UniProtKB/TrEMBL annotation:
The keyword Signal applies. It comes from the Bacteria. Belongs to the bacterial solute-binding protein 1 family. Keywords: Cell membrane, Lipoprotein, Membrane, Palmitate, Periplasm, Signal. Residues 1-22 form the signal peptide. This is Sugar ABC transporter substrate-binding protein. Pfam families: SBP_bac_1. It is found in: Periplasm. Its main location: periplasm. CDD domains: PBP2_TMBP_like.
Length: 437
């Protein structure tokens, strides 16, 4: 079952109100220097969110007197390191970034998260923190069995970035449907003005591609599970698998099975992709250097047979259950997710999970400087209002489920199986996974 962002439920309004009242009552006792001289370790994923936060590392240390040790890795390496540390019940990591939509259920079931709910309502809350100002749906998405596993850092989802100059030169209209993407890619492939350009690029790396594939699945009217079983072999599921895999096979870059966000961003920023379906979170990196500022259009994935259901998720900042300094770690979490910091991060292109940050005068001025920024913000508003957070199967073993989804796509892409065999193989493995729940 998908979880619509606009309809997500969990933490009640009463809880949010009580937290706000408790925070106000305790504000006078708060001291940013309460943990001066202590050291905490942040295991960082070197994506744009962490990169933007760490630009202000010195500000945090000056404000709190806390030393922040940073261990930063590419996303897959970060996940491997995190699993090693948490499985060992080690206190080597105090704070880490987490995707509730991916590993939230699994990590919560293992007891690896520190429950942050108690920290949001006592004397460890800054008077200007405003916990209630965080997007409720994103907060709820981080709650599992009553445990608040993380605090939202951003709101994001995959968007279609496309080269308006190449579309014009090749006589291609902006796509209004998934079918139009295929037609545009075919026309661009045969266009002399785009002879050295990849027509369409998206994630092909097995564990990473469900993030982008899920949008195709939902837009084609598919779902991952029905009546307690895997539904990847439904008509809509097979159509989504075929469409996504064939777009990458026929119009994607060489070696696309190794592509995740880093490769996609580099390709598009260098002007070597006409269309790139990738994270909204990559917007600042895509625009780095300014070469794509004037020739880029941005939109959510166009509708398919099932309508428009954009994937919408967000990173959260979590504290390890095994941290030796959870109170100190919470100071970093609330600093990184505070209204002031999220307003700063918005100017770095990190979409804020706080409505107040989106209304900030400086942010509005930043958007107005470039039309492409406004297109990005408009697309994000669609994600916020219409999105679903289902990426992979809604089970404890969600991360493993993504491997089988990715394998099905890659089998079709590489020609090692047709769509019927690929989805049948995936369904067999996925149903075994579901039965273990």
């Amino acid at each position: 079952m998908t979880l619509p962002i606009k309809k997500a439920c969990g933490l009640t309004a009463a809880l949010l109100a009580s937290v706000a009242l408790a925070s106000a009552a305790s504000a006078q006792g708060f001291d940013w220097m309460a943990h001066k001289g202590e050291t905490i370790t942040f295991l960082a994923n070197n994506n744009p969110v962490a990169t933007a936060i760490l630009k202000y590392k010195d500000d945090f240390e000056k404000k709190t007197g806390i030393t922040l040790k940073v261990d930063s890795y590419q996303e897959q390496q970060m996940r491997q390191r995190l699993l090693t540390v948490l499985n060992a019940h080690s206190d080597e990591v105090d704070v880490f970034m987490t995707l509730p939509s991916r590993e939230g259920r699994q990590f919560a079931a293992a007891g690896w998260y520190q429950d942050l709910k108690p920290y949001t309502g006592d004397q460890t809350v800054s008077p200007d923190y405003d916990f209630g100002g965080l997007g409720k749906a994103l907060v709820d998405a981080a709650v599992f069995d009553g445990t608040l596993t993380g605090i939202p850092l951003n709101i994001e989802g995959p968007l279609l970035y496309y080269r308006t100059d190449l579309f014009e030169k090749c006589g291609v209209d902006a796509p209004k449907s998934i079918e139009d993407i295929q037609k545009a890619a075919e026309k661009i492939k045969g266009c002399s003005d785009a002879s050295n350009v990849t027509p369409f690029a998206s994630r092909g790396l097995k564990p990473a591609l469900p993030y982008t594939f899920s949008n195709f699945l939902h837009n084609e009217g598919g779902e991952y599970m029905k009546d307690g079983k895997s539904a990847l072999c439904s008509d809509a599921g097979k159509k989504a698998l075929s469409t996504y895999a064939n777009l990458l096979k026929d119009y994607g870059p060489p070696g696309v099975v190794n592509y995740s966000f880093y490769q996609l961003t580099s390709l598009y920023r260098a002007g070597r992709a006409a269309m790139s379906f990738q994270s909204s979170n990559e917007f600042p990196s895509v625009m780095e250097g300014g070469e794509r500022l004037k020739d880029t259009g941005i939109m959510p994935l166009p509708a398919g047979a099932g309508g428009s259901h954009p994937t919408t998720i967000g990173w959260a900042m979590a504290v390890s259950k095994y941290s030796a300094h959870p109170e100190t770690a919470w100071y970093f979490v609330q600093w990184a997710t505070s209204p002031k910091m999220q307003a700063k991060l918005a100017l770095e292109g990190i979409a804020p999970p706080r409505a107040a940050a989106a209304e900030d005068a400086d942010y509005k001025a930043w958007l107005a400087e470039e039309p492409v920024r406004q297109k990005w913000q408009e697309a994000l508003q669609t994600l916020a209002s219409d999105g679903t957070s289902e990426v992979g199967y809604p089970i404890v073993q969600n991360p493993e489920s993504r491997e089988y989804i990715g394998q099905a796509v890659d089998d079709i892409l590489l020609g090692t199986a047709d769509v019927d065999q690929a989805c049948a193989n995936a369904d067999q493995q996925l149903n075994a996974l579901i039965e273990r729940e």
